[in-house]
């Protein structure tokens, strides 16, 4: 049974290329239709946190002064996520920081670490939702937050709940087509690129390329 790692970063800016660094990371593991484990840590890179970021996230320079080094945190994350495909909400953002922090920690790339995006998937499954940001989708689907939004663990946990809802929705809509197939990361990564009107065809084309027990 596949384990998927749901990732969320809090950062000092919008992109690592502009000098932005991660200030916090959380990873929530999902397996068999449930959350099975969690990891979260602040991370000290030496980067300065602007006041508007502190206001948004609650993460201050004083908090980071006591945090473990980014290199140590990413080494722990690497062990925690070994062999797991990844999911994030607005994955292009988290993927950029994932790659940047991974490289700065001198870690060997893990071939399993491919991202799927719950923004793209929610747009395919619920195009009627007015907005597809994390807060709007949580409200639309009635998902319960566990903590403060814009903190990594709360955001990763609600994204994990959204992922579970997406998996159940795919199972519900396409039960006859799926048969015994699992709604795994590969299928989700395929569906996120399919036109909203072609989901069944996209699902069938993916299943035709994999062996189902």
Structural features, described:
This protein is of the alpha/beta class. It has one domain (3-207): Nucleotidyltransferase, domain 5. The protein contains 10 helices and 5 strands. A 5-stranded mixed sheet has the order 3-2-1-4-5, sandwiched between helices. Strand 4 (86-88), helix 4 and strand 5 (115-117) form a beta-alpha-beta unit. The radius of gyration is 18 Å and the shape is globular. One of its GO terms (molecular function) is exonuclease activity.
Q: How many domains would you count in the coordinates? A: 1
Low-confidence stretches: none
Q: What percent of the residues sit in helical stretches (DSSP H or I)?
A: 40-55%
CATH class: Alpha Beta
Q: CATH H level: which superfamily?
A: Ribonuclease H-like superfamily/Ribonuclease H
How many helical stretches? 10
Determine the structural class based on helices, strands and strand pairing: alpha/beta
Q: What CATH architecture label applies?
A: 2-Layer Sandwich
Mean pLDDT: 95
Strand content: 15-25%
Shape estimate: globular
What is the straight-line distance between the termini? Answer: 12 Å
Question: What's the SSE blueprint?
Answer:
Blueprint (H helix, E strand, L loop, with lengths): L2 E9 L10 E10 L2 E9 L8 H7 L3 H5 L4 H11 L5 E3 L2 H14 L10 E3 H8 L8 H8 L10 H22 L1 H4 L6 H7 L7 H9 L6
Parallel strand pairs: 1-4, 4-5
Antiparallel strand pairs: 1-2, 2-3
Protein name: 3'-5' exonuclease
InterPro entries: Ribonucl_H, RNaseH-like_sf, RNaseH_sf
Keywords: Exonuclease, Hydrolase, Nuclease
